[in-house]
Write a structure and sequence with these properties.
The protein is mainly β. The chain has two helices and 40 strands. The chain has a domain of about 60 residues: Dockerin domain (Type 1 dockerin domain, Orthogonal Bundle), CATH 1.10.1330.
Length: about 625
Amino acid sequence: MKYAPLFLPAFALCLAPSASGDGAWQVLALGDGVSSADITGISGAVWVPNTFNNPTIDSNGVVSFRGQIAGAGITNTGATANHVVLVRSAGAPWTVVARNNSGVPGNSPADAIFSRTASPNNSIVSANNMAANGGVLASGFMTGPGITTGTNDTGVWFVPTSGAPVLLVQGRDACPGTAGAQLPANVTVSSGVRVNDSGDFLSTYTLTGGDVSGTTNNSALVLIRAGADELIMRKGDPAPGLGGLTVTPDSFGQYVNGSSILFSGKLVGAGVTTANDAAYYTNIGVASGVRMWAREGDPIPGLDGLTFKPTSSFAFSQRPLASDGTITFFADLGGTATTLNDKALMTESNGTFAILFRKGDSVPGITDSPDPNFTGKLFSSISNTNAVRTSSGLYAFEGILMNADGTSIASPAPATYMGVRTASGTMITICRQTDPVPGMPGFTFNSFAGSTSLCAAANGVVVFRASVSNAETSASGSALMAWDEAGGMRLLAKTGDTTFTGTSVNQLTLIGATGNNGNGSGTGLSDNGWLTISAGDTTSQIYAIARIQLEPTGSNCPADLNDDGAVNGEDLGILLAAWGACPGTGTCPADLNDDGAVDGVDLGILLAAWGPCP
């Protein structure tokens, strides 16, 4: 695998190459209680150890995270606490997005400040919500003129990379589409909320006041956006396409990709039981409103004899909603399905269903393996939290195996693997439990079950964390791995490395399943390969935020700076934004001739490559 040269600001710390031998990690922030935090407008601050939340990254390599600071004039208790900051930058100096005891973004509401005396560490919520263009959702608790604690003291703001911040929603705001019903007092966002480049996100709220009647209509799914929020569905609304039934939108599983939405709900009415009450909705393919595209217990159109199994729910992976309208989901099958083949990864596209792969399928490199640990083993299921479809159509997943008779594989025999399905439908086994770990002689992979924090990018790079061990020495730890189809697997980092803190780290953290935005891409690993992690040495109490840019091996289109398969206006914008001298030869992706500057020569190279990549 080849790692693209990094744009390395003069203030970023460029360290030794990664364990793969390619590229270089950049440590952007060091939480040791001593090193300067280097935050614009805050002098003398240092990062407090072990206070970094999971970082996020955009398509330009800009990182955002929440942390705590200490130093002269900084306090962490009571009503004057001013130690929590949400920052954003491509490396220090950091720009403050939000800080407790400072004014809220855009000064809206006027003269309000972030403050939560009883719990100052949570005055600004740690939620890791970032759009592909670098816009950040900031949410928290506030005081000030007209603010009443427990009533309207929370808010959510969208802070773009340029332009004015926008207050999107405040506690006790009026719920759109109702007669005076109000949103709850607490409207802060949680990790996993998907925000798009415009600041839009979906959320379910409990309503009070106005036309609320007991529990019959006291919750609603609302699309929050700047200017005009939209009521998508309210508890008790008629179920689209099902006369006489009503529906209650669920409070989980709300997905946004651009202007497209996906959510689920529970049906109520005559003939509805727990065997057929789960329904799934989208606005894709309809001029207005939403359509039900699937229901628990229904026959599956185009797949004769199969039904969606009663009393079961669908599972969605990290990014189930593609920009082309394709919905990817994992379903239990009924009808003619048996216990040997009653699970499948499927897609729906405007009413057309297809099975991508199914329980009981053969697995390349496993079913046909001469290794007796794997011979005859078949695909059983995936971990939906560790599965992701990229915008380029690649599906990466953590898979579970079974015996040919459908029984579970008894420990200690290997039962897990990492795999991908390419956009063309080719199934590839990346690695198997008990396989040797590249770059770590003597170490093998332990079970992958539930621990990989899988990330994948549209440029074809897959990143995951694995538990590894050495049977001879009894040593164990974690390895951060990267894979692409051309170059195979590479070691990026491992516990024990001194790359990040200068001491031996024992924590390597990927944001994993919550690292997704409302643009169909990732916030831990961007579509063009920008990866950010946190690393820590809990013994020495030193922690770091780092980044690297990963590029598939054999890339033959260097002018495709965002790795979307074409040289176009977006690449031109990236080149122009990087115009000028590079910090060092080979450190700027836009320096296409590696002469230490982004200039007219590089512009000429880009224009000559204009169009689809070969």
